[in-house]
Design goal:
The protein has helices spanning about 1-10, 15-60. By secondary structure, the protein is an all-alpha fold.
Length: about 60
């Protein structure tokens, strides 16, 4: 949405404002990448803990 807003604001506003809006869009893209990688690591970590705890309970 920020990239689209930057493209639309380029017609009307100053170059500095459109560059700021584009940079905000880039920051949100990086934030989305970080958030998705952390969620994958959380799922993998939870699966590993469950696998390890089930193996320990089996040997009792």
């Amino acid at each position: 949405m920020y990239k689209l807003l930057g493209a639309l604001a380029e017609i009307v506003s100053d170059k500095k404002i459109t560059s700021l809006i584009d940079q905000i869009g880039d920051v949100f893209k990086i934030f989305l990448g970080i958030l998705s990688s952390l969620s994958v690591m959380l799922i993998i970590g939870t699966a590993l803990v469950l696998k390890i705890s089930n193996n320990v309970m089996m040997y009792r």
